[in-house]
């Protein structure tokens, strides 16, 4: 009996000593970032640390999406994720991953982004108070509309398009559209109510937010009109309290591994989204002539963004060339 009690006390001690990280989540459980990225990452952390560290994905967020960086930095939550564009001007280097024409694969862009972040962008010091666990992007963004002919660029000019901010806002403006900044969760309401004519979105988001029954035209741009960058971070003090062994274990399933996991999830979701639109949305793929027109309108935006990134102390042009080369290598 004493042996059994001792064994129970040892098991209890092991349970009590386990570290639990609270992850604040602001997306529905069915969203690819949650079910295909956060949930697998949680399982990977727990396996890599042999159960010494567990992750609790909270049922309700501890604040709005734009507050999630500060929630981690201030220790309100242990782990958070969000889009850098939700806090304009704060994360200048993230714009490198949001530029037009970067690539057709979220996995390739995300992996290249992490590598360039680690070697070049982190030096800008934009992520104070946190341990950066990963950075990644969603799939390439395209234009979609209701009741407008998107077979030519003229169909975009003058259209009111919902955007999430960041690069998408600048792209919409450069194309002659009127950007309407709003959370993605409001997209259905805005389009069904006629407040906007369309949206800039990746394929996945069109179907996830049930817009396939509202939109009837799409304009697909090879390489994408834009990407949206995301961060995944942990409170720095909380990170420092972990043992070196557990830090190494978490690192082994984060960083490039996490960026690749997220990119793959987006690519699979985009492929499913694109297939779901067949027969419902008339999709126009940009021609060579249209691509030339897009470059004329968007290359100045790219140059302006590179100048802005450079104010963070980064050689922005070298970083972009490095990232393009890594994307090409990943895409082979």
UniProtKB/TrEMBL annotation:
<keyword id="KW-0675">Receptor</keyword>
<dbReference type="Pfam" id="PF03480">
    <property type="entry name" value="DctP"/>
</dbReference>
<keyword id="KW-0732">Signal</keyword>
<dbReference type="InterPro" id="IPR038404">
    <property type="entry name" value="TRAP_DctP_sf"/>
</dbReference>
<dbReference type="InterPro" id="IPR018389">
    <property type="entry name" value="DctP_fam"/>
</dbReference>
<protein>
    <submittedName>
        <fullName>TRAP transporter solute receptor</fullName>
    </submittedName>
</protein>
<dbReference type="GO" id="GO:0055085">
    <property type="term" value="P:transmembrane transport"/>
</dbReference>
């Amino acid at each position: 009996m004493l042996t059994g009690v001792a064994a129970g006390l040892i098991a209890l001690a092991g349970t009590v000593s386990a570290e639990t990280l609270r992850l604040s989540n602001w997306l529905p459980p069915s969203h690819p970032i949650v079910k295909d990225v956060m949930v697998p990452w949680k399982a990977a952390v727990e396996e890599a640390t042999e159960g010494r560290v567990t992750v609790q994905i909270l049922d309700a967020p501890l604040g709005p999406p734009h507050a999630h960086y500060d929630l981690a930095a201030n220790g309100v939550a242990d782990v958070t994720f969000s889009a850098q564009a939700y806090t304009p001007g704060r994360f200048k280097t993230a714009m490198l991953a949001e530029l037009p024409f970067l690539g057709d694969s979220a996995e390739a862009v995300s992996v290249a982004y992490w590598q360039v972040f680690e070697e070049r962008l982190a030096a800008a010091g934009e992520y104070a108070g946190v341990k950066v666990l990963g950075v990644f992007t969603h799939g390439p963004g395209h234009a979609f509309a209701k009741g407008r002919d998107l077979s030519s660029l003229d169909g975009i000019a003058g259209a009111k398009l919902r955007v999430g901010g960041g690069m998408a806002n600048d792209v919409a403006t450069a194309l002659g559209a009127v950007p309407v900044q709003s959370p993605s969760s409001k997209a259905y309401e805005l389009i069904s109510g006629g407040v906007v004519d369309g949206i800039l979105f990746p394929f996945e988001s069109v179907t996830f937010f049930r817009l396939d029954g509202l939109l009837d035209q799409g304009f697909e741009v090879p390489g994408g009109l834009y990407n949206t960058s995301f961060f995944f971070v942990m409170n720095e003090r909380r990170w420092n309290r972990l043992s070196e062994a557990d830090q190494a274990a978490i690192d082994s399933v984060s960083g490039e591994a996490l960026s690749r996991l997220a990119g793959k999830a987006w690519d699979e979701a985009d492929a499913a989204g694109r297939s779901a639109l067949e027969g419902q949305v008339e999709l126009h793929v940009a021609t060579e002539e249209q691509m030339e027109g897009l470059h004329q309108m968007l290359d100045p935006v790219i140059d302006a963004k590179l100048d802005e990134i450079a104010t963070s102390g980064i050689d922005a042009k070298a970083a972009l060339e490095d990232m393009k080369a890594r994307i090409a290598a990943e895409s082979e």
